[in-house]
Amino acid sequence: MPEREHKLTHIDETGRAHMVNVAAKPETERTAIARGEVVLKPETVALIRQGLMKKGDVLTVAQLAGIMGAKRTSELIPLCHPIPIHQISVDLELDDALPGVKISSRVVTIGKTGVEMEALTAVSVAALAVYDMVKAVEKTGRIQNIRLVEKHGGTSGDVINE
To answer: Which of 57, 91, 132, 158 is catalytic?
Structure first.
């Protein structure tokens, strides 16, 4: 592995945290895809499917929350750069086999740094919104398996984890 892959980029020579200087990096198209799940009781999934949750449309609210979360990532994660986001999609799907909600996000930019954190934040915030929407009927929901699935662009190249 090249030397830079062994070094934590957000730690300086003295071991202190710092924001990475990306000024000299080229602007390229960058894409990241993340996924996660919210495990729920089958009865709760049925209520969501039937549109019977008192707070409203769980999947739409969670989708919007995920989009909003991605746009605010640099305000939540201390060393993330604020970057222009050109496209965010957050998709939620009820899954009886889980049982629960599967969440995926895809974020695209043209810039000097990637959008992995934005994609992960979108899934995380969407999952939290699902939990918030169903907690009146189920407090045992479990947010799990939030992970980066793909990343494309930038000098470190493509990464496919799934």
So the answer is: 132
Nearest to 34 by CA among 96, 108, 142, 100: 108
Q: Is 91 a catalytic residue?
A: no
Q: Is 21 exposed, middle or buried (0-12, 13-18, 19+ CB in 10 A)?
A: exposed
E strands in 65-155? 87-95, 100-111, 142-152
Residue 8 three-state SS: coil
Cβ–Cβ < 8 Å for 23, 113: no
Taking only the tens of pLDDT, the chain with its 162 residues reads 344 456 667 677 777 776 776 767 788 899 999 999 999 999 999 999 999 999 999 999 999 999 999 999 999 998 899 999 999 999 999 999 999 999 999 999 999 888 999 999 999 999 999 999 999 999 999 999 999 999 999 888 899 998
The one-character DSSP state at 137 is: T
CB 91 within 8 A of CB 66: no
Taking the C-alpha atoms of residue 26 and residue 3, their distance in angstroms, rounded to an integer, is: 20
